[in-house]
Amino acid sequence: MFKKVFVEKDILHLKRTQGILNKISYKKLEEIEKVEDIFGRVKKPYLQKRTELNLFLGKKKGELVKEAPEAYGTKGDPHFYFVHAYNCIYECQYCYLQGYFHSPDLVIFVNHEEILKEIEKKIDETDCGSTPWFHAGEYSDSLALTNITGELPIYFDFFKDHPTAKLELRTKSANIRELLKIAPLKNVITSFSLSPEKAIKSYDLKTPPLKTRLKAMKELFGKGHPIGLHLDPVIFEVDFEASYSLLLTDLCKSIPLEKLEYISLGVVRFSKTVFHQVKKNYPNSPLLAEDFIKGSDGKVRYKRPMRYWILNKLKDLCIQYGANPENIYLCMEDED
Amino acid sequence: MDLLTFAHRGEAKAFFREFPFKPINFAFEGLYLSEGHYLLITGEGIQATSEKLSAVLGAFKEIESIFNLGVCGALDENFNEGEIHPIRTCYMEKNSKMEFKSFSTPNIDGLDCVSAHQRVLDTGYAKYLSYFAPLVDREVWAIGSVCSLFKKSFYSYKYISDNADGEEICQVVSVKAEKISEALLSYFLRLKSPDKIKRIIPEFKGLHFTASQKRLYNSLIKKLKIKGMPLDKIVNLYEINALPLSPKKKAARVLKEMQAALFPFNEKIKNDLQDIIAPMEELGIKVKYPKSFETTEIEIGSVIKNGHDLFKLIENLKEFPLDKIHQVLKGRVDV
Asked: Once rounded to an integer, what is the mean pLDDT over residues B291-313?
């Protein structure tokens, strides 16, 4: 339940807005001029999301589609992300959102048609022969609230008409209800971020358990939806190899690894600001007992030999379990 | 030592009765001391509170925690007059705009409060403030701000005196002072002393930690605690103390063993590199690699006295195990 829902006056009457309001419970509704008049105006502690969360509904302004950073996705193709929501219902201890918006409140934007216009422009600008990728969920989970927000059919319709472009829906949820209602498309990939069960319990607070996510993956795969996998962020444990072996064994029961569109591997990393937030929000987190360094790029992460050791081990494991080496890439790390 | 702060003397009435506060001769009136507590009457508003609290915290270093007690208005109809709530996060409004900075107390279950620069006279203004917090006062943000500057912990407990309808707060306090002050006192007396984090400073006989070693020790001991690794199971202090080393070197040894226990992978990398480098060092070639391991750059040093030395160095460098070093730095090791 949301404590307050703030809705921009201009969109209150929209069917889409009313559809969202009808599906959620809240204590109070406030009409506002613009989301940015209230959201982010004050620094609201991140962990207040545990006790009271507000929801903002509005129109996304400014740059709607942005170029993704280097080594964000598969190599050689242009990658973009689009923003249709801010913040997440989950509480992952390493999440960069805790240092990003200065507020844990959720923002849902409803102007999907404008976002799609921008996506179309990027597709038109892309060189022939390369595949532009569009990632949802840079600032939110792509699926967690889709039964409330209802935007999936709009994006599927668009990408059906633009088969040269790809859409990635990135999630830690198992909320596939809406996806199951839609006919799969080859160029719309649902990618799941997985960690060993023990790591999920320790770090990915409030996210669904591993077996629920695996079940969702199996179901979607069975219906013909292309599936991607993110083993990211990997956090080192003494039994790291054994726990990932177990994860991959379980995963293979849901989907053969060679059937995955891609596997992305990444080691836990933070910006300096986010790491400061982790210290503040989770002072007893095992993350704070790790041997991290601050690199020349400002990122806080494991030392280089350890990062590469983890990634190489994991890559070898995935191959051992049947993954196609061509489909494995390292996220935010140079290939060795 | 704790400091209790009140905006108005009326709010503190019961505290003066309960504790034998005596005035302190200070730069301004309003500062008192009794056993275990200072008490400060700050006056109303952000500026007065900031000025007086800063002066007191600057002068009385023994003050560790600040407890702000006083009245506030409710901006939300769900909260009623007479209730006392701990404050969680405080915000500030100035000239109808919100200040971005906020300050939080350790009371995560409390309510948020916005400190307004002006009295809340109209409903539109009250509505705007209510977007950010359910309570409004005139001081608590200043308390948070000054405490953040002086790195002191602060707590705030607010008695809801009205519904932020514009009534003069001084008037409210003077009329209801007795009732408000008694309620605040009994609330305060029920509060448990907050746990204070004790600083961990190593005090081992026979060992000497430099300032940076102390910092490292404190950081490592915290990590051991998180990982549930007791120090005495990892480091044999008696054994280290018996070594024929200087107190500084013994301290360094303790730190090294703590690091080895916490970060075995790192230790493995260091040892592997040392094994590769050792034959070179025997030949008089010093090899330095980046301590952070973030680059694969290495530095080589050697003393050359004559042409023979130079020739020897060139010959030895032909066997230099650069590939092996790079493999280790790229994590190609057996663990």
From this structure: 90
CA angle in degrees (0–180, nearest 5) for A307-A308-A310: 70
Is A336 among the domain residues? Answer: no
Binned at pLDDT 50, 70 and 90, residue A89 comes out as very high
Whether A308 and B330 lie within 8 Å, measured CB to CB? yes
Q: What is the C-alpha to C-alpha distance for residues B70 and B67, in angstroms, rounded to an integer?
A: 10
Q: Which domain holds residue A130?
A: 2-330
The reply to whether residue A310 touches residue B333, judged by beta carbons under 8 angstroms, is no
List Cβ neighbours of B307 (8 Å cut-off, separation of 6 or more).
none
Residue A271 domain-assigned (yes or no) = yes
User: Could you tell me if B132 lies within 8 Å of chain A, comparing CB atoms?
Assistant: yes
Task: For the beta carbon of residue B126, count every other beta carbon within 10 angstroms.
Answer: 20
Q: Which residues in chain B are closer than 8 Å to A285, comparing Cβ atoms?
A: 226
Q: Which residues pair with A294 in a beta bridge?
A: A300
Number of domains in chain A: 1
The answer to whether the Cβ–Cβ distance between A307 and B331 falls below 8 Å is yes
Q: Which of B89, B91, B269 is opposite residue A305, by nearest beta carbon? A: B269
Closest-CA residue of chain B to A241: B335
* Domain presence at residue A306: yes
What kind of fold does domain B2-190 have according to CATH?
A: Rossmann fold (3.40.50)
Q: If pLDDT is split at 50, 70 and 90, which confidence band does B166 have?
A: low
User: Residue B192: pLDDT above 60?
Assistant: no
Residue A335: inside a domain: no
| Residue A324: predicted pLDDT | 95
Q: Do B331 and A236 touch (CB under 8 A)?
A: no
Contact in structure between B69 and B84 (CB atoms under 8 Å): no
- Domain ranges across chain B: 2-190, 208-262, 263-335
pTM, full prediction: 0.87
Q: How far is B100 from chain A (nearest CA, A)?
A: 4
Query: Quick one: pLDDT band at residue A153, thresholds 50, 70, 90?
Result: very high
User: Given the structure tokens 């024929």, which residue do they identify?
Assistant: B244
User: Does residue B9 contact residue B42 with C-beta atoms inside 8 Å?
Assistant: no
Cβ–Cβ of B331/A312 closer than 8 Å? yes
